[in-house]
Amino acid sequence: MLPAFLSYAADDIEEVRTQATKQYLQEQGLISGYLTGSSVGGNAPMMTMQSTIGSGIGKPLFFAALQNSSAGHAVFASMPIILLILAISGGARQGEESDLVRYGLLMVGLVAIVIVLTAMVLVFYC
């Protein structure tokens, strides 16, 4: 039998590990969507892992939805989409591609903040 303070410390360590896992999984969804340029392509290799880890924590659908949302939102800032925008708009002027990439990364950062805050609210209050 562990002394009381050690059991509290073990509980705190487990809570920190759970929170770190949740944070990593949110960022992983953003990265997979950004790198592949496709929400389906970003979800395909990661969805099983997300739902399996979510099952271990007790919220499998939550992590699957988080993966889908973060990958889907990050797609809009990915290079394939930026190049598509440039192609549709009639070509790039000097320096326009770097401006779009910078803007896309800013938007991914804002989306990451919103997803992290939403996930924290859903995990702690639902």
UniProtKB/TrEMBL annotation:
Keyword Transmembrane helix: yes
Domain of life, per lineage: Bacteria
UniProt keyword annotations, A-Z: Membrane, Transmembrane, Transmembrane helix
Transmembrane portions of the chain: 70-88, 100-125
This protein's name: L-lactate permease
Organism: Solimicrobium silvestre
